[in-house]
Amino acid sequence: MGNLWDRSCYLQRVYGERLRFVHLIRKLSDQVPQPISKTSAFATVRLFATAVRFGIRTVETILWPQFARLPSPDQPFLPRISYASAPPNPTHSTTPAVIQTSKHHIHGSRPVLAVAYPGVADKLAAVLGTSERVFRNVDLAPYTTFKIGGPADLFVEPRSADELCAVLKVAYSSGIPHFVLGLGANILVGDCGFRGLIIRNRANAISVLDDGTVIAESGVIVFPDLIDVAVAAGLSGLEHYVGIPSTVGGALWQNLHFLSPAPERLRTMFIEEVVLSADVLERDGRRHNVDRDYFNFGYDYSTLHDSEAVVLSASFALENANQQNMRRIMSENLDWRRARHPPLDAEPSAGSIFKKIDGVGAGRLIDQAGLKGTRVGGAEVTRRHANILINRDQATASDVRKLINYIQAVVVEKSGYVLETEIRFVGDFCG
Ligand SMILES: Cc1cc2nc3c(=O)[nH]c(=O)nc-3n(C[C@H](O)[C@H](O)[C@H](O)COP(=O)(O)OP(=O)(O)OC[C@H]3O[C@@H](n4cnc5c(N)ncnc54)[C@H](O)[C@@H]3O)c2cc1C
Asked: What is the pTM of this model?
């Protein structure tokens, strides 16, 4: 039990959702029928075990509906969303469900209250040299590729690694909740925004050394900015990631990846392959240079997921290569993306929503469940790629979360596979 509790505490830290966890446990204990039956006892144990394995969000979003139906196992399975008509019939993939939710109901039912943090704003103004770069109540939707999300109480844009470091130190010393934002390409921001400080990283200096090392501050945009500089200098290693929206910091956080060049496309390439070192600020205020091993890179993973360390800049070891060949790779990769992915400007998204399942494919499971085209409010599973949800029509974060819940529930019911989300949920989801 000790291990179980330790793991649970760890999960709380990882997701930063202690209250959500306590709430879930209360919900679970309230719902266990009294006297406890063999079936419900087994189900409860299974739920806790699964909570430990997959994390709180997965339990709440996928397994809770199953648990809720336990008292009457014969009842048809219904996920926790309201339907305009009948739920979609997964066998008819050409007739998507349209699940209605009232738009903007969240802001109407629960006002978003900005918190002042007076002392913090002054300290931020001091390190940035002016109060005119400290903003209050900033709508975050435009700063994400999903174009979804409510306001942040405080918002700053550091323009260099040193400014980023100084701003973070203010956040650490004042204890204000904060979040380092890159291009917002791998996150969903809640409809009620973020209670605290959003640090939108715009540290954007790039330098190229004689030995082929490229040093980039962490707010540098990978494409076009970093890739264009590297390719213009005849340096290869980053061109594979053309067309992917990311800052350098976000790329290291997630270990940016794409397929190796056409026509073979033999394997997945990761940005870790060219990471040499990085300048990192730890939560205790220590700024130090680390090598690639520090990041413990994996698929969609780096150690940054489990710490509050922030990358200030990174250096990449690139190799001399033929520019024409690099441009061919870039052009083929851009064509590949255009053919398979929804265009970000017309159909905003956060890329793949669910983590890869080796040898199976999250997108394939969603497709096989007939969920392409399914809608909740303004959020839709795009027909181009089943693992991508788009903001079709003024979607709210609540729409997206409900659609995610629904997909997870249908896929686990139909295939037995548990889909885990790849994107990070940021801020206040209003309940
Ligand atoms: C259309 C589309 C296609 C995509 N295709 C791919 C793809 O092919 N391959 C792929 O790997 N990904 C893909 N993605 C996902 C996304 O592009 C990457 O995850 C990207 O690295 C996110 O970078 P970002 O700067 O937007 O980070 P954000 O989304 O802003 O932040 C993501 C996380 O990184 C953290 N972070 C940001 N900067 C720092 C820093 N300096 N130090 C520490 N932590 C930091 C944030 O705090 C947050 O936790 C795609 C996304 C979209 C929208």
From this structure: 0.78
